[in-house]
Specification:
Bound molecules: carboxymethyldethia coenzyme *A, cobalt (II) ion
Structural class: alpha+beta
CATH class: Alpha Beta
CATH superfamily: 2,3-Dihydroxybiphenyl 1,2-Dioxygenase, domain 1
Distance between the termini: 26 Å
InterPro entries: Glyas_Bleomycin-R_OHBP_Dase, MeMalonyl-CoA_epimerase, MMCE/EMCE_epimerase, VOC_core
Order of helices and strands: EHEEEHEHEEE
Strand content: 35-45%
Mean pLDDT: 96
Keywords: Metal-binding
Largest sheet: 8 strands, mixed
Radius of gyration: 15 Å
Organism: Streptomyces nigrescens
Strand order of the largest sheet: 2-3-4-1-5-8-7-6
CATH architecture: Roll
Protein name: Methylmalonyl-CoA epimerase
Number of helices: 3
Family: Belongs to the methylmalonyl-CoA epimerase family.
Low-confidence stretches: none
CATH topology: 2,3-Dihydroxybiphenyl 1,2-Dioxygenase, domain 1
Length: 146
């Protein structure tokens, strides 16, 4: 069951400048940063709020580490902006299988590693009314991990 907005993924050309915009404009602080080479991104997670299921909701600011990555290609075509949305679930395996059975393309056979040790998969935007959609199961320690 999808129980929350886990994050909104925002593509940017310069992560440091974008982080500074969110800090100076809204007061949002960086909760976690990492490089995910498999996804081709350098990212910052800004925690917006805790949620009733024990998780949290974040903004995920994404700078590509290479031009041929998903975010690099998207930025070259569209410029900066909202790249994807992500729903949180306790069971990314079960939920992605159930969604696949409804005829929506799930991009990975098995969930891969996302922010803070989470397990993630994606649904094809062309099957989701134009929205690249991610499903996330947070690692148990994610709420306290920096
Ligand atoms: N949102 C909406 N539509 C998108 C999109 C996005 N983020 N990315 C691509 N599309 C659309 C394109 O506009 C294009 O549509 P048209 O054919 O109408 O022009 C179509 O999908 C194909 O796009 P493409 O540029 O040819 O790109 P690819 O097919 O090579 O890749 C996708 C698209 C979704 C398969 C790829 O971006 C992907 O695998 N994404 C999942 C991984 C990812 O996004 N990782 C980065 C985030 C990591 C994280 O969140 O942790
Ligand atoms: Co994401």
């Amino acid at each position: 069951m999808l129980t929350r907005i886990d994050h909104i993924g925002i593509a940017c050309f310069d992560l440091d400048k974008t982080v500074e915009f969110y800090r100076a404009t809204y007061g949002f602080e960086v909760f976690h940063t990492e490089v995910n080479e498999e996804q081709g991104v350098r990212e910052a997670m800004l925690k917006i709020n805790e949620t009733s299921d024990g998780g949290a909701s974040y903004l995920q600011l994404l700078e590509p580490t290479r031009e041929d990555s998903a975010v690099g290609k998207w930025l070259a075509k569209n410029g900066e902006g909202v790249h994807h949305i992500a729903f949180g679930t306790a069971d990314v395996d079960g939920d992605s299988e159930a969604i696949r059975d409804k005829g929506v393309r799930v991009l990975y056979d098995q969930p891969r590693t996302g922010s803070m040790g989470s397990r993630i998969t994606f649904l094809h935007p062309k099957d989701c009314h134009g929205v690249l959609t991610e499903l996330v199961t947070a690692a148990p320690s994610a709420a306290t991990d920096h």
